[in-house]
TrEMBL record, chains A, B:
The active site is at residues 7, 68, 141. This is Crossover junction endodeoxyribonuclease RuvC. It holds the Pfam family RuvC. One of its GO terms (molecular function) is hydrolase activity. The gene is ruvC. It comes from Paractinoplanes bogorensis.
Length: 177, 177
């Protein structure tokens, strides 16, 4: 199973592509950070993220997309940008007809480290080990996107497959207003 | 100038299409509420909103899109959904190559009623009068989307035109990662 994991952010959005099956070490395919400038127009920032994610989905042809769910623990301004980026991320998968699954930060941490309260360094160390990398991913925040993809692979894709059928049906059905 | 105004929401998203020039009564073209169910999968909800807005932009061919800017005065859960819907709304315009402008709620209220702290009933009454309607728009929350479109027409489109050039350039330029 090939999964594209997204750690949504408006200024820095992490993207990780991983292949694997539940319970075994996974294979790193690629990772990216999509950037935009905080002083840039919001329409341009969202359009850039949208185009970049659509390109990466087209390039890597994942079977599903996994996105970290936004929480409100940070300051409100940051959360709004993250929520907007997460909408673009979820849409990038849905528009390509792929199943999209969201995971909370603690679900992701628990999946890769065994602890839902693991620190950033621990997540990075486990991602490096689970993907059999010689060194941690650089930039470091790409590790989160890779962790999300690994989390999705290991938790299996049952929910994802049910949702894929629903998305396919919705796309066939046209628009409800 | 024909403007498509969007009052973003995940459960109910208001869309109003208005034609006019600054300072004169405007003409109502159409209004809609795009619905989705809170218990539905987030990917399906965002995809439905995305498809519906793209269809309405294609159908009405506005020259620009105006979106109400999200604020954090409400509860955090609502704000997250609204922020996600606003990203989809802004993208609907940007992806069609249109200039997209955002306005705060008080800018919209001030534009149509003269007061940035006007109540919902006052906004609805002014929208009804400014569009020369026999009765207030139904459902009532469509009035907000129409107010956003009127606000954009009356405030002129200078910023919008500058941004349109930037969007056109960004779409020509392909993807920066």
């Amino acid at each position: 199973m090939r999964v594209l994991g997204i750690d949504p952010g408006l200024t820095r959005c992490g993207v990780g592509v991983v292949e694997g099956v539940p319970g075994r070490p996974c294979k790193l395919i690629a990772y990216y950070i999509v950037h935009s400038q905080p002083d840039e127009d919001i329409a341009l920032r969202l359009l850039h993220l949208d185009t970049s994610l659509a390109d990466l989905v087209a390039e890597h042809k994942p079977e599903s997309v996994a996105v970290e769910r936004v929480f409100s623990q940070h300051n409100v301004r940051t959360v709004m940008g993250t929520a907007q980026a997460s909408a673009v991320a979820v849409l990038a998968g849905a528009r390509a007809g792929l199943p999209v699954q969201t995971y909370t930060p603690s679900e992701v941490k628990a999946a890769v480290t065994g602890s839902g309260t693991a620190g950033k360094a621990q997540v990075t160390a486990m991602v490096t080990r689970l993907l059999s990398l010689d060194a941690p991913p650089k930039p470091a925040d790409a590790a989160d996107a890779l962790a999300i993809a690994i989390c999705h692979i290991w938790r299996g894709g049952t929910r994802a497959r049910i949702q894929a059928a629903a998305i396919a049906a919705a796309r066939r059905g046209g628009v409800r207003r």
